[in-house]
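Figure-free illustration: sequence to structure, shown twice.
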Amino acid sequence: MKARAVEGLRPEAPLRENAVSILRTRLNELFSFAEAALEPGAVDAQHDMRIAAKRLRYVLEITGFCFGSEADAARGAARALQSVLGDIRDCEAMFPRAQGIDSLTTVLHTRRELLLRRFSGLWEEQAKEGIWVGLERALG
């Protein structure tokens, strides 16, 4: 998945100003995949959301000090999303290799279902905790 272009970056501007533009773009990118990624068979959307979470996390690792504790919380939330979505992706990658081994296929399907529930619960928990709203507020 190609990263969305960030509009309005100005090299002469302060770091915080450019970081706001980048973080808003990355946050919007993350949210654009959420609805589809929550569907059980949405393998591509889940993968794209994992990549979007990774990009958001990395920008927060570099610029988070500009935005305080809300950025720290969002970085942790992005890391958690990236992790669970990566585990789901690992199951998907193993399915072709498990062809013909019924017990392994069953384990992979069960694990994937559990991970999807974990992802859904995590996304809901992050919303209830106001992680993403907090980041938006910190961006100003």
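We now fold a second protein in the same way, so the two outputs can be compared directly.
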Amino acid sequence: MLRERHVIDTFKGLTAPFVLGVMAATGRTASPSLWVYLAIHGIYGVLWVMKSRVFGDKNWERPCTPKRFVMLVGGLLAYWAAPVLLATSGREAPPALLGFAVALFGFGVFLHFASDMQKHLWIELRRGHLLHTGLWSRTRNPNYLGELCIYTSFASLSLHWLPFVFFGSVIAVEWIPNMLRKDKSLSRYPEFAAYAQRSGLLFPRLF
């Protein structure tokens, strides 16, 4: 049975070969910006597939309906617009932007993968209890915050506005409804109200 995870993992795993193909097709195999892009987006795809095998999100285990298949493929293909735009533009990102993108990517990977692992272990060891400690103490969605950093780093290297528009639409259509739906589900815990007061939906509440 085809599951959503199979579609997502396939596209994530093929990111590095795709970017290499774009570099070869456009003759930009000596572009520092594209090599940096390949390094961060390519390794993210590899890490995603590894995470999917070890502590993947159970939501992606749903059977992939035809409608959902089209939506996933369309969305995942759109994520590949950034390297295409960068390669065909002939432009190079300034060194400061390269450094910013790498740093933001690293921070995002830490948040995304560490918080997902914390959630995975919490569900295994403390199922039935509200997760509100560690990376989850000040934001109720540190994994989404990590992904926000990751995909912002990719979009910034494209040197184009289109990836930001697409990513913004994903946040509006997928992320925000998912976060609100999760809040509604967690509201069944007596301590959720206090937790919601001291934490942000996405960005950490520091005071």
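Summary for the second example: The radius of gyration is 18 Å.
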